[in-house]
Amino acid sequence: MVDAVSSNPLVPELGKIIKIIQETPDVKTFHITTDKGKPFTPMPGQLAMLSLLDVGEAMFSITSQGPEYLEIAIKKVGTLTEALHEAEEGQTVGIRGPYGNGFPLDMMKGKNLLFIAGGIGLAPVRSLINYCAEHREDYGNMWIIYGSRSPADLCFKEDLTYNWFKVENCRVNVTVDRGDENWNGHEGFVPAYLEELKPSPENCVAVTCGPPIMIKFVLQSLEKLGFKDDQIVTTLEMRMKCGVGKCGRCNIGSHYVCLDGPVFTLEQLKKMPNEY
Ligand code: FES
Q: Residue 3 above 70 pLDDT?
């Protein structure tokens, strides 16, 4: 028999932080497991609700997963995220999910994939990059264009400098708004770099995530390069509370981001009220 608590989708499972990686001065990646192993198996782009007792809960992108744990990258921006940044390995957390639709893997099959991300916006995109790297035969060429404000703000440096270089037919281009004395890579904003690199829209799907201002200009640049609205996919960062379509906090018109998103094509977004 199922009891009332375990059948309630709003009651989190008890999880434990087993590893913490300091990505940047204000971003940490947390590896989270439960007594039974991985809390659940998300598809790329899906979300998890993470909570700390007496502090609160919030929705976060799942940035990757191992056989026994989920990886969640969190930027320090408020009370809960600050408390999580104070946490140590071994800390108990609540976790529930997965939520959201995830990336449209079927629509991407056989296509070249262009990933464009800025700052912590690489977190959800990374789940897709790692998935495509694991299912390499299902996808065409992969191209990652990523930028941050400074070299210190680059997330997932080991992927950028090592892991993704080992993926077959995968190109990685990194830029920073402003370099420092040790930086000898590209300097400049992501949209300008994208236009400079000129990826072809032919048989390609572009996936973008980052600060709203970056996304706005990336969409313009993609349009200039000849990408159509149905070739562009983005994932929305919205304030979500329940994650299950009950609280109404994440709606855009008649759509709930927690149920219908967070991943949308630009074609879908253009049909929705401009509240995102
Ligand atoms: S988060 Fe409550 S309806 Fe979407």
A: no
The pair of three-digit structure tokens given for residue 155, joined into one six-digit string: 């997330």
The atom of ligand 1 lying closest to the CA of 243 is 1
Class of CATH domain 105-235: alpha beta
Among the atoms of ligand 1, which is closest to the Cα of residue 258? 4
pLDDT in tens, 54-76: 999 999 999 999 999 999 999 99
- Name the one residue in this structure whose structure tokens are 């659940």: 40
CA dihedral 255, 272, 124, 84 (to 10 degrees): -60
Residue among 255, 258, 276 to mutate when testing ligand 1 (max atoms within 8 A of CB): 258
**13-99 CATH choice from 3.30.565.10, 2.40.30.10, 3.30.70.2190, 3.40.50.300:** 2.40.30.10
DSSP code of 196? H
Residue 52: CB atoms within 10 Å: 19
The alpha carbons of the chain give a radius of gyration, in whole angstroms, of 18
242 Cβ inside 6 Å of ligand 1: yes
User: Measuring CA to CA, which residue among 129, 119, 117 is closest to residue 45?
Assistant: 129
> Domains of the chain: which residue ranges?
13-99, 105-235
* Model confidence pLDDT, tens digit, residues 116-139: 999 999 999 999 999 999 999 999
Ligand 1 atom having least distance to the Cα of 250 = 4
Going from the Cα of 240 to the center of ligand 1, the distance in angstroms, rounded, reads 5
Pocket lining: 250 vs ligand 1, CB cutoff 6 Å: yes
CA of 243 to the centre of ligand 1 (A): 5
In ligand 1, the atom with minimum distance to the C-alpha of 259 is: 4
Tens digit of pLDDT for each residue in 180-192?
Answer: 999 999 999 999 9
Res 2: pLDDT: 46
pTM above 0.70, yes or no: yes
